[in-house]
Structures are given as structure tokens and as C-alpha cells.
Write a sequence for this structure.
């Protein structure tokens, strides 16, 4: 099968592209390699794909194209040339806090970019579009765990608003054009090859260097940390569950071509316990700088994954202590 994976130099996208290619599929990966964080890490992820595929003698299964998903003409031409059967759309401008200072970057990548992908899928009869949403769409709701049926009409960051918009756009295209779409609400993904702007990397780097870490809301935060291998496994399984296909139960009778799932560890962890897991893995104590809550941040995330489990007989299970040890070990090696 032939896939398009957007964000193929990103944390999640690179590992999804590599997994599909190793399974024998043809994968075209695109990324604009922007400088939101050091592009050297993005190039290293692409090099890792090449090395792994070469070792398995299947390097022809992956092709990388540098492309900005907000470029309407370039994306349309790519779809016309390649005739993708399925699309896994993971490219986006990430980060809650960055969206406060740089909102237009989110409009271009997350809104315009989503639209170009939807149009490509519509015009070229793609079998299934799987796209990344986020746990941030739940905002600061008090009901836990967060369920896909909860109302998510009060985002508290522009990033969250763009992800909710992506779900609405997909719903509309599924309804109007019978385009099968599946949105995945990711919950705080971490692990080797992760993003330098996220807490696992930032805290690990500072703790190992003997520098202080900023602990917001005085440590009174809860996060549903989800290990990268669990996320990739969920994506790979879900992309085979095409909404409205024969034998696959639909979620919405009014729009059977639309599906939505949480992918989280279903085990929220206190921020202080998360820091302790890094300290244990690194063998170094953290110097903590306690601060008030940050704008755009949420107090807790907690995924209800029952819908995912029913659909694909899988739910994330890697414990935070195990996952953080793997991340810290990778960080020290690299």
C-alpha cells in the first residue's frame, strides 16, 4: 500500500514512516524542516530511517520530499503525482506556549495545512485519512477521565483551538464527500527522539547539567504521559480501521465516515512524580524553581481509552518509570 506521512522528520511522524516502510509499504514522507527547534534533530531522524531501512534492505520503500503543507499548489501536485492510498497527517505547528507569541504560524500550518491535505484526499479518493489532534482540546474541564463524547468548546490556547478546528474540518469532509477520516487525540507523548521543547527533554537536560527547572503551578499538575512506542502502535492499528468499511462498526450513525479516538496512557501522573522518574533514571536530584500557572496551560490530562481498546484491542501500557529510563538512556548516548 502507498502512504503519505506528513511531518515525517518529526518525533511521531518519523517513527510511523519507518514502521510502515519496514512493514513493506511504500511511504512518501514530507516535512518543511523548519527551525521551531534545531533542524539537526530532524535530519538525524531522517538519517535514522535511512539507516534502519538500509539494514533491512528495503530503503526503496521510503522517499522524503521537503515540502510545506501550507503550499497549496505543491501539495496538490504531490497528490496528483503519487496517487496515495492512505494518508497519515502528523505535520503541525506544535506547542501550547509558542502559540501565544506566534499565532500566525498555527494558522498557516494547522489550518491551511489541514485544508490542503483534506483537499488532496478528496480529489484523489484516498481510502483513509488519519490525522493528529490533541488532548489540549479538552481545555480545563474538571470531569475525568476525558472522553471523546465530552464537549470541547472551550479551548484555552490557540494551539488547542486549531486542533479542535481540524476535527471539525475532517467531520465536514467526511459528511460532504464520504471521505473516511480518523482523528487521534494524543496525550503528552515522550520517548527517544522526542522534542526538545517538551518537559521530558527540557527537564532531563537541565537536571543532568545541574541547572534549575521551572515547576509551574507549584507542581500541582497532572499529566497522562504516553510513551512513543504506544502511540505508534495505536496509529498503525487505527489506520487499518477505515470508518464505514465493511465489517467495521461506525461511531456516528449520522456521519459513519468520521471517527475520533484518545490515545493516552490512562494513568495520569503528578508533576512531582514525573520529575522523580527523571531523577531516578538520571541518578541526579533536581533543583526546582516553583512558579505560578502559565497562560494556556491546563491543570490535568487523563485519557479514557475504552473506545480505542474496543476498536483495535490495544491500549497504551508503558509505565512512566520505564519510559523515562529509556528516554534518559537515549539522551545520554546522543
Amino acid at each position: 500500500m502507498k502512504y503519505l506521512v506528513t511531518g515525517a522528520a518529526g518525533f511521531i511522524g518519523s517513527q510511523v514512516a519507518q514502521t510502515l516502510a519496514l512493514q513493506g509499504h511504500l511511504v512518501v514522507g514530507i516535512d518543511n524542516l523548519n527551525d521551531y527547534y534545531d533542524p539537526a534533530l530532524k535530519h538525524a531522524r531522517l538519517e535514522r530511517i535511512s539507516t534502519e531501512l538500509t539494514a533491512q534492505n528495503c530503503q526503496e520503500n521510503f522517499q522524503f520530499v521537503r515540502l510545506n503543507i501550507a503550499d497549496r499548489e505543491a501539495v496538490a501536485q504531490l497528490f496528483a503525482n503519487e496517487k496515495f492510498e492512505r494518508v497519515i497527517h502528523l505535520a503541525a505547528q506544535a506547542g501550547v506556549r509558542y502559540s501565544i507569541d506566534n499565532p500566525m504560524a498555527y494558522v498557516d500550518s494547522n489550518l491551511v495545512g489541514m485544508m490542503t491535505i483534506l483537499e488532496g484526499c478528496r480529489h484523489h479518493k484516498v481510502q483513509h485519512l488519519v490525522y493528529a489532534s490533541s488532548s489540549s482540546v479538552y481545555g480545563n474541564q474538571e470531569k475525568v477521565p476525558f472522553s471523546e463524547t465530552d464537549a470541547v468548546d472551550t479551548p484555552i490556547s490557540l494551539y488547542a483551538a486549531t486542533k479542535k478546528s481540524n476535527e471539525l474540518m475532517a467531520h465536514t469532509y467526511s459528511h460532504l464527500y464520504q471521505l473516511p477520516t480518523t482523528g487521534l487525540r494524543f496525550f503528552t507523548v515522550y520517548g527517544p527522539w522526542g522534542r526538545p521543547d517538551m518537559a521530558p527533554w527540557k527537564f532531563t537536560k537541565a537536571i543532568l547539567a545541574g541547572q534549575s527547572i521551572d515547576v509551574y503551578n507549584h507542581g500541582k499538575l497532572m499529566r497522562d504521559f504516553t510513551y512513543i512506542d504506544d502511540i505508534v502502535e495505536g496509529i498503525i492499528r487505527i489506520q487499518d480501521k477505515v470508518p464505514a468499511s465493511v465489517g467495521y462498526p461506525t461511531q456516528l450513525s449520522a456521519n459513519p465516515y468520521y471517527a475520533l479516538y484518545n490515545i493516552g496512557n490512562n494513568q495520569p501522573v503528578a508533576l512531582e512524580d514525573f520529575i522523580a522518574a527523571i531523577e531516578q533514571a538520571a541518578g541526579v536530584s533536581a533543583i526546582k524553581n516553583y512558579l505560578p500557572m502559565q497562560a494556556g496551560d491546563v491543570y490535568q490530562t487523563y485519557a479514557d481509552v475504552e473506545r480505542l481498546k474496543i476498536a483495535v484491542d490495544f491500549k497504551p501500557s508503558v509505565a512512566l518509570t520505564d519510559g523515562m529510563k529509556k528516554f534518559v538512556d537515549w539522551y545520554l548516548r546522543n
